[in-house]
Write a structure and sequence with these properties.
This protein is an alpha+beta fold. The protein has one domain (2-47). 58% of the residues lie in helices and 17% in strands. The longest helix is centred in the C-terminal third of the chain and has 28 residues, at 20-47. The termini are far apart.
Length: 48
């Protein structure tokens, strides 16, 4: 099983496809996770 499928490959056994939607979604999720981690750290240091 391949993890990332390129646009021009003809496969069915992959987890992510390398296209604009997947790249946008991965960046969005990463930014949200970073913001959540920062919010938890700020809360910990201001209340702790």
């Amino acid at each position: 099983m391949k993890f990332v499928k390129e646009d021009e490959e003809e496969r069915r056994d992959y987890i992510f496809q390398k296209d604009k939607k997947t790249v946008y979604g991965a960046r969005f999720i990463a930014i949200v996770l970073i913001l959540l981690i920062v919010a938890v750290a700020v809360t910990y240091f201001t209340l702790g």
